[in-house]
Structures are given as structure tokens and as C-alpha cells.
């Protein structure tokens, strides 16, 4: 049996590879798991109750409308309109089975094999994987030491084959929030060059500043070149229910629906009901989780301030710490393996997000308890 070269040449999921190491552990000490970028805590009680009630309804197992439940599209458009002080229509919202699927259907609608796309390094690995799977040549923009990309530098990498630029803010894996003026600069670049700017806003609720992350929706022609991607998984702790969204113009939604029809037809109804319950009834809970995770970040930064074991936080935000390890004599993969087997700490290697080994690790502090952050520094301090 022969397989596609594009698939065979892709790396396996770094999450799966990291978790495979857990099975090799012989220590009895509990594992500190900083690998996942998804909530490990349960959703609000009102969301759980709605999930249970929806499961008993006659429509529970039926296909919802392909673009999404009308009530969810309207509620999310209202949520965005309030958050961005803009006028966003429900017709501009397409509900997908998670934000990963949102990116995939949009990227596939925008590109053909042989086209080019620009990602900002360090990049979210699934974005890179999907584009390569589609036969798209990926260019990576080095944002420099502050990890904030420059639109002028990006323009030098664009060619007549470039079809899209993708920003992730706050970033995965770095946690860095891109300033709104920089996002606007990329929007201007996309408009001038006639290409799409995709802004992945999965972690938009977990920024330090709770005002609008940008003012892109203020421009009357925003939907000609701007596509915003969202996740309900992070806001309402429902990652397994797979619910995300594309926000864009009629063209991108129409073309994305063709692809969605071939892979999932529509996002699961139960997940949509959960997201709708969150939007309508769990906004205070949502803000409480944002505040709690912000406190965890503060504790993480304070605890890591003395660089235990030589591990240095380069950037942080949202769920993540982007951390440089101290061993120039080891590959990052070897460091990750030693952390798991010898120190009972599970992290993701930075090589999942970069084209070369920069001695970086992604640590998802958001899924730890306060006492576990203190324990983390003890274990890192023992690293040899």
C-alpha cells in the first residue's frame, strides 16, 4: 500500500509524541503535565446542565444547520460586537468543529498546491502541517527577540504566489499578544497585496488587556481581506465538544462551507448548545477563569524568576510560558525526555513550533494548581 508523500513527510503530533514518553516512566511521583493547551478544568455548571438537557432533546442527534445554530451565530456575533465595539452580523459567522477545523477549511478555500503562505515563527504546528499537507509552500517570518512580527519585514517575504498571512494572538506557543497597531499594519499589507490576513484569536479572552484586541472590524471593507478565527473550547472549557468559528465575508464562508460539507458537514450540535449556554449564561464564570489563569501566570513568572535549573522564561501569556532550557550539549528532544523520565515534568519541545532547534520549551502553566507551580520549580532545579 502506498501513501501520500505529503502525509508521510509530516511529523506526528508533538502532543502524542510527548505523551508517549509518559508510558516509559518508572517513577511513582505524580506527573506535572504542562503539555496540553486546553482547559483541564470542567465547564460552568450551567453549561453542564445544558449539555445534559440537550442530549435528551429530539434534535440532539440530527444535523444542525450547516453554518451553525442560528441562535449561536447571533449570540457570538453579539459577543464579538460588544468586545470589539463593532457591528458584526450573524451572517459573518460560520461555526466549525473547533478552531483547528476553522483554519483548515479557510486555508483550503484560499490556496491551491504550489501557492505560498506566511506564518510567524514560532508557529502553531497544526497550521504549518495543514498547509504542507495541501501542497502549500510555507514561509516563516522571524519576529526577532521581542517575538512581535514586523509587517515591513513580512512584505519582503511575499511573492506573487502568496495567498495568506496568519497571525496568532495571543501566540501559541509564546503567549505573546501582538499590539493592535501591528495587527493593523498586517491588515494594511494584506489589503495592498490582495491577499488574506487570518487572525487566530483562540486565546483572545486571556490577554492582559480586556479591551478589543484590534479595530479591524471598524473598516467597512474588512471582510474583503480579514478572517478571524475563534475557539469556544478555551472560553468555556469544552475542548472535547469541538466548537469554533470563522468570522469573515460571504465569499470565504461560502467556499469554506463546501469543504466543511466533505469533512464534517457541520459542527456537532451538542458542542454548539454548550457554546451557546456559555455565551448566554456563563460570562461571569468566563471572566473568573481568565482572572484565575492570570494569577497562575503571575505565580509562574515569580517562581521562574530565579531560573531554576537554568530554565529561563523568554515570553509568557494566555496559557503558555516560552522557556529556554540550559543544556547546549543536548537536543531539545533529549531535554524533554529527561524531564519526563527523571523529573516527572511533561512539556512540549519548542522544535514542534520552529524550523530549527532553538533550545526552547512550551510550558502550559494554565493547567497547574498553585502548589504544582511551586513544585515545578523544585523539579526544574533538580534537572541534570
CATH H-level homologous superfamily name of the largest domain: Type I PLP-dependent aspartate aminotransferase-like (Major domain)
Q: Judging by the overall fold, what is the CATH architecture of the largest domain?
A: 3-Layer(aba) Sandwich
- Element pattern in H and E: HHEHHEHEHEHEHEEHEHHHEEHEEEH
**Main sheet properties:** 7 strands, mixed
Give the number of DSSP strands: 13
Coarse structural class: alpha/beta
Radius of gyration of CA atoms, rounded to a whole number: 21 Å
Report the span from N to C terminus. 45 Å
- Poorly predicted regions are none
Tell me, briefly, the overall form: globular
GO molecular function, one term: pyridoxal phosphate binding
Protein name: Aminotransferase class I/classII large domain-containing protein
Cofactor: pyridoxal 5'-phosphate
Organism: marine metagenome
How does this structure look, described?
With 384 residues, the chain is α/β, with parallel strands linked by helices. The protein has two domains: 5-42 and 285-381, Aspartate Aminotransferase, domain 1 (Alpha-Beta Complex); 45-282, Type I PLP-dependent aspartate aminotransferase-like (Major domain) (Aspartate Aminotransferase, domain 2, 3-Layer(aba) Sandwich). 41% of the residues lie in helices and 15% in strands. The protein is built from 14 helices and 13 strands. Strands 2-8-7-6-5-3-4 form a seven-stranded mixed β-sheet, with helices on both faces. It has a four-stranded antiparallel β-sheet with strand order 9-10-13-12. Strands 1-11 form a two-stranded parallel sheet. Strand 5 (162-168), helix 8 and strand 6 form a beta-alpha-beta unit. The radius of gyration is 21 Å and the shape is globular. The relative contact order is 0.17. The mean pLDDT is 94. Keywords: Aminotransferase, Pyridoxal phosphate, Transferase. GO terms for molecular function: pyridoxal phosphate binding; transaminase activity. Its cofactor is pyridoxal 5'-phosphate.
Amino acid at each position: 500500500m502506498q501513501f501520500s508523500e505529503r502525509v508521510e513527510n509530516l511529523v506526528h503530533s508533538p502532543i502524542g509524541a510527548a505523551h508517549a514518553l509518559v508510558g516509559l516512566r518508572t517513577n511513582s511521583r505524580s506527573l506535572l503535565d504542562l503539555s496540553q493547551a486546553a482547559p483541564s478544568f470542567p465547564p460552568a455548571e450551567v453549561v453542564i446542565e445544558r449539555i445534559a438537557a440537550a442530549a435528551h432533546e429530539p434534535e440532539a442527534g440530527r444535523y444542525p444547520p450547516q453554518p451553525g445554530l442560528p441562535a449561536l451565530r447571533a449570540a457570538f456575533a453579539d459577543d464579538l460586537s460588544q468586545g470589539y465595539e463593532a457591528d458584526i452580523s450573524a451572517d459573518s459567522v460560520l461555526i466549525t468543529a473547533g478552531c483547528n477545523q476553522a483554519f483548515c477549511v479557510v486555508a483550503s478555500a484560499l490556496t491551491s498546491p504550489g501557492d505560498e503562505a506566511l506564518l510567524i515563527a514560532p508557529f502553531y504546528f497544526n497550521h504549518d502541517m495543514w498547509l504542507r499537507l495541501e501542497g502549500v509552500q510555507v514561509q516563516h517570518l522571524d519576529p526577532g527577540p521581542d517575538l512581535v512580527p514586523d509587517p515591513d519585514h513580512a512584505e519582503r517575504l511575499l511573492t506573487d504566489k502568496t495567498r495568506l498571512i496568519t497571525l496568532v494572538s495571543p501566540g501559541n506557543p509564546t503567549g505573546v499578544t501582538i499590539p493592535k497597531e501591528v495587527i493593523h499594519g498586517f491588515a494594511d499589507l494584506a489589503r495592498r497585496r490582495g491577499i488574506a490576513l487570518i487572525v487566530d484569536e483562540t486565546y483572545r479572552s486571556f490577554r492582559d488587556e480586556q479591551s478589543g484586541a484590534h479595530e479591524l472590524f471598524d473598516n467597512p471593507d474588512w471582510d474583503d481581506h480579514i478572517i478571524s478565527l475563534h475557539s469556544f473550547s478555551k472560553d468555556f472549557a469544552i475542548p472535547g465538544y469541538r466548537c469554533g468559528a470563522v468570522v469573515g465575508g460571504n465569499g470565504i464562508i461560502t467556499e469554506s462551507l463546501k469543504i466543511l460539507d466533505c469533512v464534517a458537514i457541520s459542527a456537532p450540535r451538542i458542542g454548539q448548545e454548550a457554546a451557546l449556554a456559555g455565551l448566554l449564561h456563563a460570562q461571569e464564570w468566563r471572566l473568573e477563569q481568565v482572572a484565575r489563569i492570570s494569577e497562575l501566570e503571575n505565580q509562574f513568572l515569580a517562581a521562574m524568576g530565579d531560573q531554576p535549573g537554568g530554565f529561563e522564561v523568554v515570553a509568557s501569556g494566555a496559557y503558555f510560558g516560552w522557556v529556554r532550557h540550559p543544556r547546549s550539549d543536548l537536543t531539545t528532544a533529549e531535554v524533554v525526555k529527561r524531564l519526563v523520565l527523571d523529573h516527572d515534568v511533561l512539556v512540549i519541545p519548542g522544535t514542534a513550533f520552529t524550523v530549527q532547534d532553538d533550545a526552547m520549551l512550551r510550558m502550559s502553566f494554565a493547567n497547574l494548581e498553585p502548589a504544582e507551580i511551586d513544585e515545578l520549580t523544585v523539579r526544574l532545579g533538580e534537572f541534570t
